[in-house]
């Protein structure tokens, strides 16, 4: 299977729980290399643009207000099959449906404040990584 990169976000509610180290430990234990990382507070415009595919959804306004409510941790993770593997690790979007042992089952507060974002395809990973990182800020292990 191919080595891939994916974008991972620890959302404001989980950053506020003071467990960032625990989350990265879980990624590392599952074989992810953390190849870039930053903490930032999104502007309203940055959050709207990042989630623009959801602009017409009823939850959009709540989602944006939540995403700008505090700092987030954004990272680029690398391993085989990274995109799908990371989605599986964080669990279902709806925390009520997230399987036991997934990050959302453990740390989500509700549907909107579900704690984590993960790219959903190779194409969106590429877009999302470029949205937050310059090429020279990413330390890939790929030769
Ligand atoms: P995912 O983050 O799993 O890729 P989506 O892209 O469908 O899920 O949605 C983006 C984010 O919007 C979700 O992570 C969640 O925070 C929020 N969201 C999605 N669907 C709902 C919903 N039905 N009610 C409330 N918030 C939602
Ligand atoms: Mg999504």
Automatic annotation (TrEMBL):
Binding-site positions, ATP: 11, 59, 87, 93, 104, 114
In the UniProt entry, which residues are flagged as the active site?
A: 117
Q: Which residues form the Nucleoside diphosphate kinase-like domain?
A: 3-140
Q: Which GO terms describe its molecular function?
A: ATP binding; metal ion binding; nucleoside diphosphate kinase activity
Name under which the protein is recorded:
Nucleoside diphosphate kinase
The first-level EC class reads transferase
Q: Which cofactors are named for this entry?
A: Mg(2+)
What GO terms in the biological process aspect are recorded for it?
A: CTP biosynthetic process; GTP biosynthetic process; UTP biosynthetic process
Gene Ontology terms: cellular component = cytoplasm
Q: Cite the record's note on assembly.
A: Homotetramer.
Q: What is the native source organism of this protein?
A: Candidatus Pantoea edessiphila
Q: What InterPro entries does UniProt report for this protein, alphabetically? A: NDK-like_dom, NDK-like_dom_sf, Nucleoside_diP_kinase, Nucleoside_diP_kinase_AS
**Any idea which UniProt keywords this protein has?**
ATP-binding, Cytoplasm, Kinase, Magnesium, Metal-binding, Nucleotide metabolism, Nucleotide-binding, Phosphoprotein, Transferase
Q: Which subcellular locations apply to this protein? A: Cytoplasm
Coiled coil feature spans: none
Q: Which NCBIfam families match?
A: PRK00668.1
Identify the EC number(s).
2.7.4.6
CDD domains reported for this sequence:
NDPk_I
Q: Which superkingdom does the taxonomy of this entry point to? A: Bacteria
